[in-house]
């Protein structure tokens, strides 16, 4: 389960950032995760909750915003959201689609006291 290592990295970054800013308690950590990042969000939340025990993030919550897959056709420029993993332009049917959103895994905000 690579979600545990992702949760540990998120926790490490949040704790380091909080300490650098003289914060004593982490209340919330906000992340954006693209559907193509191949992260099981429930497993990530479970791992985060287990790993935060005994840290300044012990009572924090991990808030996850899932980012949809968005692609741009390199033939006609049409931009569209995709539900599945087959990317063809819905305007001109080209298979030359560049993914522009949906691969990210970013911490966007850390709420502290």
Condensed summary:
The protein has two helices and six strands; from the N terminus they run αβαβββββ.
Structure description:
This protein has 113 residues and is an alpha+beta fold. It is built from two helices and six strands, in the order αβαβββββ. A hairpin with a 5-residue loop joins strand 3 (69-73) and strand 4 (79-82). The longest helix has 18 residues, at 3-20.
Count of structural domains:
1
Q: State the order of secondary-structure elements, H for helix, E for strand.
A: HEHEEEEE
**Tally of strands:** 6
Task: Report the β-strand fraction as a percent range.
Answer: 25-35%
- CATH class category: Alpha Beta
Helix content class? 25-40%
Strand order across the biggest sheet? 2-1-6
The name of the CATH architecture is 2-Layer Sandwich
């Amino acid at each position: 389960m690579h979600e545990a290592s992702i949760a540990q990295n998120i926790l490490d970054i949040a704790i380091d950032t909080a300490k650098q800013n003289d914060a004593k308690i982490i209340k919330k950590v906000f992340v954006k995760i693209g559907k193509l990042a191949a992260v099981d969000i429930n497993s990530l939340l479970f791992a985060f909750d287990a790993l935060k025990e005994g840290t300044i993030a012990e009572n924090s919550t991990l808030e996850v915003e899932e980012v949809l897959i968005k692609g741009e056709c390199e033939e006609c420029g049409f931009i569209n959201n995709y539900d599945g993993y087959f990317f063809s332009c819905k305007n001109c049917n080209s298979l030359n689609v560049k993914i522009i959103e949906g691969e990210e895994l970013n911490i966007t905000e850390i709420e502290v006291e």
